[in-house]
Amino acid sequence: MAFAAAKARADFPVFNRRVKGKPLVYLDSAATSQKPWSVIKALTAYYERQNANIHRGVHTLAEEGERAIEESRAKAARFVNAPKPENMVFVRNTTEAVNLVAHGWARKHLKAGDEVLVTELEHHSNLVPWQLLARDKGVRLRQIPVDDQGRIDLEAARKAVTPKTRLVAFTAMSNALGTLSPVKELVDLAHRSGALALVDGAQWVPHLKTDVQAWGCDFLAFSGHKMLAPAGVGFLYGKAELLESMDPFLGGGGMIQEVWFDRSTWNTVPHRFEAGTPSLGDYAAFGAAVDYLEACGLDALRAHEEALTGKLLGVLGAEAGVTVYGPLDPKLRGGVVSFNIEGVHPHDVGQIFDSEGVAIRVGHHCCQPLMRRLQTGGTARASVYLYNTEEDVEVFARALKKVKGFFKVGVKS
Amino acid sequence: MMAQGDAELQDLYRDVLVDYYKDASRQGRLDPHDIHAHGVNPVCGDEVELTLRLKDGRVDAVRYGGHGCVISRAATAMMTEALEGGSLADARRLAGAFKAFMLEGASADSLPAALEEAAALAGVRKFPLRVKCALLGWNTLLQGLDDFSKGGHDVEYQDTPLCQTGAQRKDMVTFKQVGDAVGPVKDPEIHISVAELGLIYGAEIKPAQTGDGQRVKLTMSLTSPACPYGPMLLASIHGAIAKIPGVRDVDVDLSFSPVWDPKTMASEEAKDQLGIF
Predict the structure, then answer these.
(1) pLDDT one-digit tens code per residue, A168-198
(2) Looking at the complex, does the CB of residue A143 fall below 8 Å from at least one CB of chain B?
(3) Which residues, at least 6 apart from B60, have a Cβ–Cβ distance to it below 8 Å?
(4) Which of A152, A153, A91, A96 is CA-nearest to residue A128?
């Protein structure tokens, strides 16, 4: 059954507005997704009907509020096929989830000389926390190289793993190029040498079916805001015994069992890692985002995005003077396409696209090491989601021609 | 037919800007040079590298490298053209006039004759996100001039986040400055620089506890815990950091965790010199 993107658009109020006098064409979902009415309503409903702090009160509002939030946790667990809701730690975003592993697990269990392995594809959020760890603990940070199309070379990965490797932390899908990683293979590779595997699912989880038990990964980090939920809510999935073995990251209310003046005992997992009053409404509304995505069906969504990505690649491939990064086969990538127009800086590309009402992302995409690897300072990036249509690709094609005409580049004379 | 957005676009990217963007006459790098400043905008990754050569107190030549959008490259190209032949005081005056034009809405008539062409950047003022593109080259220049007036020849400029006004950053010390200062210091025993040896483990830059300026805390190791030249080396490191403009306090911490291991920490070149293969 074909995916009804045009119908889905009606669920997203942002498409009622115009940009530069034109209908909005939103091709920046890899940065953050737009939000459907159902999520926005769930967020306001929390504050209109239930607003109360959690884990503190016995009154009706507190009880209802807590139930809404714990339902979100349970839905998150179901969405990535975690064994239990207790495997899911609420965090603000992917970055916080990675930092939680770096502080709670790595700082406790790793010592000088141990190695953390990442890939050249990583977003700064799955790189800088490990640099900080390396600096403070004398842990070595190493990289698995990618080929010129930004694909992880499994042979090189095999060589990069050493007996000292304690953690392989990698993205399941590159935010800059869209490349899909061989997740299962990398997890197995890590486990064969006794290392743990952390998957950065920020880009994968919103778009492709996720099954942490099939992957066998030890940790999975992802954000709500890229999957229709409000900003301010994300999750760290962790295997139960690993979460149990971890130290708290932030200390404070909610994460303790008993407190004396000089010491405390820790609350049970996952609450041990959830100190302080969280972003209550965002947490409660997360569940509505899962409901929406499940109603769409992730298989249909993937087929829809693959088709649109193929069309975007076709448009870019047909233009002279355009470089496309990443693999050219849409099956090998998610709905993200990075490109450059010869002689035009990505910022100027983005500005012309904006004049056509088209939102794309430009710059280094928080992946400076990858940009250096690809020998570019930055790229323009278009990314699709369930509300994008074939008409969006047509407007994209028009904007692309406008850039070339405007700056008089790539036109054969 | 032109849409509403297109008129603004034509205004943003006036032909003269695109011409300056494509003009390569002052692109490149001068060697030797008297002033060197490197600037980055961490938000977009744009970079500019300025080299200036002086003659009799005047700017003899300026070149710029790096990469950036039409706005940042054209503004930098115009700047380099305007600087040549003038004094360093003229350079500061031009910078002041340009910033007043971009940030405070001063009229194009207020621009000095040497900067006449910069009037073409007026359209950029309607795009607040792009104003910093036009200022990257100029802010980098100002940093270079400040550094030069304090006896330096090499400086790093980092564009400030949108939430900062820039006023308080005058005396910021960068990690690159610390690295550049201590890197060349040689181990008195084996005459290889501490950077090549990999003896520097980390640095921390914080505001000084008392008074203005920054406190730099450097963590480093020695080739052996009993190194007889240790105190001498530490003194040289201390002195090198203290010379960085804006540094008030210096702390050099010795660390033997991890123990220095030339096989993994030293550069290939240093390993060659040490006879480690």
Answers:
(1) 999 999 999 999 999 999 999 999 999 999 9
(2) no
(3) B53, B54, B84
(4) A96
CB of B229 less than 8 A from some CB of A: no
Show residues of chain A in contact with B133, CB under 8 Å: 347
Domain residue spans in chain A? 5-31+298-406, 40-294
User: Tell me, what's the pLDDT at B161?
Assistant: 47
Question: By the 8 A CB rule, do A19 and A395 touch?
Answer: no
Confidence of residue B170 (pLDDT cuts 50, 70, 90): very low
> Class of the A5-31+298-406 domain?
alpha beta
Q: How confident is the model at residue B262 (pLDDT cuts 50, 70, 90)?
A: confident
Alpha-carbon gap, residue B229 to B185, rounded angstroms = 13
3-class state of residue A166 by DSSP: strand
Rg (CA), chain A: 22
Q: Is the ipTM of this complex over 0.85?
A: no
Looking at residue A367, what DSSP letter applies?
-
Interface mutation vs chain B, best among A164, A351, A395, most B CBs within 10 Å: A351
pLDDT digits (tens, 9 = 90+) for B185-207: 888 778 888 888 888 888 888 87
The CATH architecture one would assign to domain B4-163 is Alpha-Beta Complex (3.90)
- Look at the domain B175-274 and name its fold: GMP Synthetase; Chain A, domain 3 (3.30.300)
Residue of B nearest to A349 (CA): B69
Most A CBs within 10 Å: which of B17, B18, B44, as the mutation test of the A interface? Answer: B44
State how far the alpha carbon of A129 is from the alpha carbons of A16, A110, A173, A186, in Å: 39, 14, 19, 20
Q: For domain A40-294, is the CATH number 3.40.640.10?
A: yes
